[in-house]
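User: Second chain of the day. Same drill as before.
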Amino acid sequence: MPAIDWTGGSGRPGVEHGWLSFPDPVFEGWRWPVIRIRGDAPGPHLCITAGVHINEVSSIRAAQSLPAAIDASGLRGTISILPIVNQPAAYTFAKAVVPIDGKNLHFSFPGAADGSFTERLAHALIHEWFADADMVIDLHGGDFGEEMARYVVCQRNGSARFDDRALDLAQAFGADLVVALKPDQMAARGRCCTALAPMGIPALVSEAGDNGAADDDAVAWHVAGVVNVARRMGMLPGSAHPRPASPVIDTYLWITAPKQGLLETRFAAGDRVRQGQLLARLRDPFGAVLADVLAPVDGYAMFRISLMFVAEGDLVTAIGVPEDPRPQSTTSQQPTTEEV
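Assistant: Same format as last time:
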């Protein structure tokens, strides 16, 4: 199990700071900053992570801001926070990956005990850091060249009791959209929430923030979502449902550039789009149109790539398709991506 060298309090009641070390020899010399908020009464254990992608800075700042937003004297249980998970990427500006092996931690769970650095880190997080958690929230946002809709991802494992609980906690976050992954996706390599579902641990991935820049509004959104979930879990007093239920999405369709060119988008992250709608246009260096990108289905634009220069096959957006209330096949249409 990980060891934590507690360096002292933060000056606020119930808040401790420390450095975490995992016992795997591959992590020798590496430490992770830890913040822990201990309540005055026993209760659940909520684990928060951020900085899986080092440039998603609004999520990192949100994790660092939680102690100031949560009154430990009114807290039941414990909130444990790893604000910067991708330590090897700190000060490198590496987009999406752990630079030691070039792998995307966000899509490497559950990892492998005998794998590469990233795979072992994913394994350690799942089996050591999250092992005694009652709930996990992994904070994310827009990396360089990415503008995100404000949404949360939750998991479903096929158990009605678990699935209802996971969706209830996702709705409590207060996002514009909820992505509820299908049970068949839990066995595939993917986000931390997919790896935690078979263990019976509810988990959310939250997305807000744009272009690798600090955004006070996005920071506040992440913080408010965590507080809402803690309220829903009975850890904090107050109502956890500040807004109507969010649309639920169960399928992603990744939209890529059909040709290399200069990208000119015609939508915003979070927009409702219609089948056949012009999403983007690709131009050559003289401004001539090379290709149009049309929406293949009705749905929501989950993010918008804000870069001008894109190669053939690069992401433009993903369309989140609202779930069909009718019985449906369990075939997944959500491939792994190494970007978002």
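Residues 326-338 have pLDDT under 50 and may be disordered.

User: Great, on to the next one.
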